## 1
Amino acid sequence: MLDAARYVTPDTLDLTRYFLGRTFAWGLFQDRFGTVRRRFSAVIDGAWQGDTFVMTEAFRNDDGSGEHRVWRIDPSHHGRFSAMADDVVGRAEGRANGPEVSLSYRIRLTVGGRGLVARFDDRMVLIDEDTVANRARVSKFGITLGEVTILFRRDAGGGLPRCAA
């Protein structure tokens, strides 16, 4: 029997509650012309370390390469928070507003063997209690380089998804 209550959209996306434990993700990067340039999957583990929420991301790209990032999130009051990671320039600034979270930051990337710093403007939306959709605009000097789309799904105890890190 279908449990309709499970599919009602919750009112609030709290990243520290949603990402506590293990979460899987699948996504893609499209350049500014809409061409898919990269597909990836990820495993994310979240845990509290004192007053800081730590999210460890392990990415596996379609070309076999991988990436690893550790976010340290400092929640504050009134829906605002800040976060840091080794490849983020300065601090990421975030804001929660009901079922949506926005996050802006500058990050060091390697593209075609060259390093660059790009700006990410993420918008995450809670779909149901286990699913979050994220779309991020990637830009440099105000010019859109492309867009990242990610679907997050909390672990229900079924193990790793195909192609995950």
Note: The first strand starts at residue 21 and ends at 31.
## 2
Amino acid sequence: MGEQSYVEVRRRLGLPEIPAGVLAEVRAEFEEERALHADPAWVAEQRAHYTPLLAAYGAVAE
């Protein structure tokens, strides 16, 4: 069985089409988020923020 995209599944189920502008906006937001996660400075900033928080609750931070 081949993989189907979200849009293909919606079509097969007879659901309304998602406007192209909405799909483009979501894809752009996803790519922005992906770029943030690839940025070492952003990752370090997130870890610096969450490490003390996790430690306060006894969770092990990487």
Note: Residues 20-38 form the longest helix (19 residues).
## 3
Amino acid sequence: MRLSQKGWNNVLIFACLFMIILFNYTSNMFATNSEKMAVEPLVQNSKLVQAIDFSGIEIQRLGASWRVLSKIPTATISNPEEYVETWVQQPLEQIESVPLVLDSAVSLPVVVWLAGNEEGLIFEFVIDHQEQSVYVQNKMTGNWYALKYSMLPQFIPRELLDA
């Protein structure tokens, strides 16, 4: 096959364009994680929360309002519905593997009771105040989620975090 100089120039241009597109596509494929991690709230929005038991403080639904039962005498929660909204609406990023935490980390179990379920959803908050890291494990599914340390008081009453 005999091509003129212009013909070979066009072949080289198209070959270079093809290589650029190929390298760009493969770098995007390798740079992004092939398994996208789920970003979802801890409790599905479609479920009706009946109660949240924080192991010492419990928020219970009473009709359209909420009441707080506390074993801690100094606990004062003025807006319990804000905790429920956070649990239902705040998305958390799921992480692939079990996180590595220091021995200084404390564990806090939380049970969320949903309407129509006989068993509550059990979550374990693993809180490391030194490293300022928080991980949440859904005990039913085994999934782990990362939570920003600054957002922890929106999920768990401060009275339990200070204890």
Note: Helices lie at 5-31, 80-89, 152-155, 158-162.
